[in-house]
Design brief:
This protein is of the alpha+beta class. It has three domains: 71 residues, Helix Hairpins (Orthogonal Bundle); 196 residues, Sandwich (atp-gated p2x4 ion channel fold), CATH 2.60.490.10; 50 residues, no CATH class. 24% of the residues lie in helices and 32% in strands. It contains ten helices and 18 strands. The strands form four sheets. Strands 2, 6, 7, 8, 9, 10, 14, 15, 16 and 17 form a ten-stranded mixed beta sheet that branches. A hairpin with a 4-residue loop joins strand 4 and strand 5. Helix 2 runs antiparallel to helix 9. It is elongated, with a radius of gyration of 41 Å. This is P2X purinoceptor. Keywords: ATP-binding, Cell membrane, Disulfide bond, Glycoprotein, Ion channel, Ion transport, Ligand-gated ion channel, Membrane, Nucleotide-binding, Receptor, Transmembrane, Transmembrane helix, Transport. Homotrimer and heterotrimer; functional P2XRs are organized as homomeric and heteromeric trimers. Homotrimer. Forms heterotrimer with P2RX1. Forms heterotrimer with P2RX6. Forms heterotrimer with P2RX3.
C-alpha cells in the first residue's frame, strides 16, 4: 500500500500564493523599439484619437454637458387679413379653420360652392365609378354607393350637361359636380399676417423662454419677422412662409398643401440666456410629386386639403343648404430643440474614454511588430517571458542557479527595459 503524504503543505502554498497575489503590484514590461516608421505610426494614431475627442466629442458634440431634448412647448396662433372673391369679401372668421388658434390651422384659398341644394332626386355625379347608363336596366334600385351622393332610384336619366346619362339618386340635389361654382380667395392671401406665439420650458434645467420680445411699447403692431433685424417679432406674412418653403403661391392656393413652420430651440445653458434664440425654418410636408401619398387624386380632382361643410337655411318652408368644398393651405407649427449644461459626470466618463482609447496606438503597433516586422520573433521573446513551474523540491532553496533547467524563470533584463 502506497504511503500517503499530508496535504497541508499544498494548502499552505495555495493560501500563501493568494495572499501574495493580493498584495503584490504588477506592472507591464516596457520595451523601447528604435524604429522611426513605427514611432511615426504610433504618434499619428495617438494624435488622431486626441483630435477626435477634443474637436468632435468635446467641442462639436459638447459631451461634457448634460442634455435634454424635446422641450415642453405651447403654441398660440392668430391670423389677420381680408380678401375677396368674385362677389364677396372674406374675413378671418370665414377663411380660417379651425378658429381656436392652435398649432395646426388651415387658411381657405379656393372654394367650390354648390348653392340651393334640396332633398330630392337628381342625376348622380359622372365622376362616381359605374354610374353611367343607357337604360333603367343598368341601374339597381336601392343600391347605395359609398363614393356616391345618395340612394339609387333605379332610373337612368340625362346628365346635367352633354349627351351622357347617369343613374338617378335620392339625396341632396343637385350634386356638387353638376352645379358647383369655383371662387378663388387667394388674390390678397399672400399679405395675410400670422402671429405665432411660442413658449418653451426645459424642466431638467428649470429654463423657460418665449419667442416674443419683452417690450412696453406697441412693437408687435408694426413689426414683421426678419431673422437678422427682428428675430423676436414672430409675425409672418403667408406669402413669405410659402416662398421660404420653395413653393409657388398661386399653384399651392389652387391645389392645397401642408406647410411646416419649424421652430428650433438649441440652447447652450452655459452661456447667458440671451444666447438661446429660436431658429425658424419652413418646408412643405406633403410630398407633392407623389400623388398617392400627397393626397392628390387627379381622377376626382381632389387635393389634400378639401374639407366639405354646408350652411343650412329655410326657404319657403323648405330646408335648403349651400355645400362648400374648400381648398387651402394648412400650417403645422412644429417645435423641437435641445438644451445642454456642464455636468461633472459626463465629463469624467468621456475623459476616461479618451485616455483609454489612446491605448489603441500601442495595440496597433504591437500587432505590426508581431506580424510584419523582420525581427518579430526577437520582439516576441523580449516582450513575453516564458515562466516554468518550479518543482516542489526547490521551494525554499532560493532562485535557480545559472545553467539550471529553470533559467527561463529569471528575467533576462534586470532593469525591466529591453531595447531593439
Amino acid at each position: 500500500m502506497a504511503p500517503t503524504y499530508p496535504k497541508a503543505p499544498t494548502a499552505w502554498r495555495l493560501a500563501r500564493g493568494c495572499w501574495s497575489a493580493f498584495w503584490d503590484y504588477e506592472t507591464p514590461k516596457v520595451i523601447v523599439v528604435r524604429n522611426r516608421r513605427l514611432g511615426v505610426v504610433y504618434r499619428a494614431v495617438q494624435l488622431l484619437i486626441l483630435l477626435y475627442f477634443v474637436w468632435y466629442v468635446f467641442i462639436v458634440q459638447k459631451s461634457y454637458q448634460d442634455s435634454e431634448t424635446g422641450p415642453e412647448s405651447s403654441v398660440i396662433t392668430k391670423v389677420k387679413g381680408i380678401t375677396e372673391s368674385e362677389h364677396k369679401v372674406w374675413d378671418v372668421e370665414e377663411y380660417v379653420k379651425p378658429p381656436e388658434g392652435g398649432s395646426v390651422f388651415s387658411i381657405i384659398t379656393r372654394i367650390e360652392v354648390t348653392p340651393f341644394q334640396t332633398l330630392g332626386a337628381c342625376p348622380e355625379s359622372i365622376r362616381v365609378p359605374n354610374v353611367t347608363c343607357r337604360s333603367d336596366a343598368n341601374c339597381t334600385a336601392g343600391e347605395l354607393d359609398m363614393l356616391g351622393n345618395g340612394l339609387r332610384t333605379g332610373r337612368c336619366v340625362p346628365y346635367y350637361h352633354g349627351a351622357a346619362k347617369t343613374c338617378e339618386v335620392s339625396g341632396w340635389c343637385p350634386v356638387e359636380d353638376g352645379a358647383s361654382v369655383s371662387h378663388f380667395l387667394g388674390k390678397m392671401a399672400p399679405n395675410f399676417t400670422i402671429l405665432i406665439k411660442n413658449s418653451i420650458h426645459y424642466p431638467k434645467f428649470q429654463f423657460s423662454k418665449g419667442n416674443i420680445a419683452h417690450r412696453e411699447d406697441d412693437y408687435l403692431r408694426h413689426c414683421t419677422f426678419d431673422q437678422g433685424s427682428d428675430p423676436y417679432c414672430p409675425i409672418f406674412r403667408l406669402g413669405f412662409i410659402v416662398e421660404q418653403a420653395g413653393e409657388n403661391f398661386t399653384e399651392l392656393a389652387h391645389r392645397g398643401g401642408v406647410i411646416g413652420v419649424v421652430i428650433n430651440w438649441d440652447c447652450d445653458l452655459d452661456l447667458p440666456a440671451s444666447q438661446c434664440n429660436p431658429k425658424y425654418s419652413f418646408r412643405r410636408l406633403d410630398p407633392k410629386h407623389v400623388p398617392a401619398s400627397s393626397g392628390y387624386n387627379f381622377s376626382l380632382g381632389k387635393s389634400l386639403l378639401h374639407p366639405r361643410f354646408a350652411k343650412y337655411f329655410n326657404m319657403n318652408s323648405t330646408i335648403t343648404r349651400t355645400l362648400i368644398k374648400a381648398y387651402g393651405i394648412r400650417i403645422d407649427v412644429i417645435v423641437h430643440g435641445q438644451a445642454g449644461k456642464f455636468s461633472l459626470i459626463p465629463t469624467i466618463i468621456n475623459l476616461a474614454t479618451a485616455l483609454t482609447s489612446i491605448g489603441v496606438g500601442s495595440f496597433l503597433c504591437d500587432w505590426i511588430l508581431l506580424t510584419f516586422m523582420n525581427k518579430n520573433k526577437v520582439y516576441s521573446h523580449k516582450k513575453f517571458d516564458k515562466m516554468v513551474n518550479t518543482p516542489d523540491q526547490h521551494i525554499g532553496q532560493g532562485l535557480p542557479t545559472s545553467g539550471s533547467p529553470h533559467q527561463d524563470s529569471i528575467p533576462t533584463d534586470p532593469k525591466g527595459l529591453a531595447q531593439l
